[in-house]
Amino acid sequence: MKQYVKNYLSLTKKEWNGMVVMLLLIAMVLAAPYALQWLHKDTTINAAEFNAALAQLNKANSGLATDGKSRPKKQLFKFNPNSLPVVKWLQLGLSDKQIAIIKNYEAKGGRFYKPTDLKKIYGISPADYKALQPFVDIPDAPVAKPIIELNKADSAALTALDGIGAAFAKRILYYRERLGGFINKEQLKEVYGLDDVKYREISGQLKVNPALIRKIDINAISFDKLRLMPYLNYKQVNAIIEYRNQHGKYASIDDLANVAILDANILRKIGPYLVFK
């Protein structure tokens, strides 16, 4: 048995040499990464030099407009914002997007009458306005303000009014759509948030053509559409429709007076908007 084990574990010279070569190869493979690391040392990045180069690149890029052309060096100066050339707005430090909004405002008839009007422009932040305000120089000579037709004005025209911003313009347009148009300027006081003070501030810049209102055919209109009329509540609209279903078409405003829950004040308000076909 002992002799058998000895014969089994014994190696020939050729086998021994092969094993030695194999061990040497394994040792070389294991040592190779360390040898390569020693021969090729990584270059250490100098953080200060990297940051300086990045800052220089950012500075160079800041001098370019979005079209790739050279942007004027920022410099604050006295300026009149009305029809100010694009290059001057760039010089004041405004972005291309901000300038585009201003030019669009001007294209729709908007003007700057006082420095605070600049705050109305969407995209002009409080910080931007604070920096620009001391340099706004609008001539004191009175500028004739345009008279706006209330039943035709869009949002841009309404925001050109003194004291009317985007929120008020949106409310006015929404109320006009529900109403069908304005019969007179005083109806603006019915717009949420527009009080007597605000009305007196803008009324001189407005005119109203009652012929532009949208009429309601009271004998054909549906409940859902009549419900939009701000002068009528749910019960009153329902009563008008039910009375029409029971008694037939209305011939005049006098027939509507037969609807019990419609008083003289309501009839006076809705009368100009009705047609009887």
TrEMBL record:
Entry keyword set: Membrane, Transmembrane, Transmembrane helix
Keyword Transmembrane helix attributed: yes
Presence of the UniProt keyword Transmembrane helix in the record: yes
Xref: Gene3D superfamilies: AF1531-like domain
Ranges annotated as spanning the membrane: 20-39
InterPro entries: Endo/Exo/Phosphatase_dom_1, RuvA_2-like
Organism superkingdom: Bacteria
GO cellular component: type II protein secretion system complex
One Pfam family per UniProt: HHH_3
GO biological process: protein secretion by the type II secretion system
PANTHER family to which the protein is assigned, alphabetical: ENDONUCLEASE/EXONUCLEASE/PHOSPHATASE FAMILY DOMAIN-CONTAINING PROTEIN 1, ENDONUCLEASE_EXONUCLEASE_PHOSPHATASE FAMILY DOMAIN-CONTAINING PROTEIN 1
Protein name: Helix-hairpin-helix domain-containing protein
Organism of derivation: Mucilaginibacter pallidiroseus
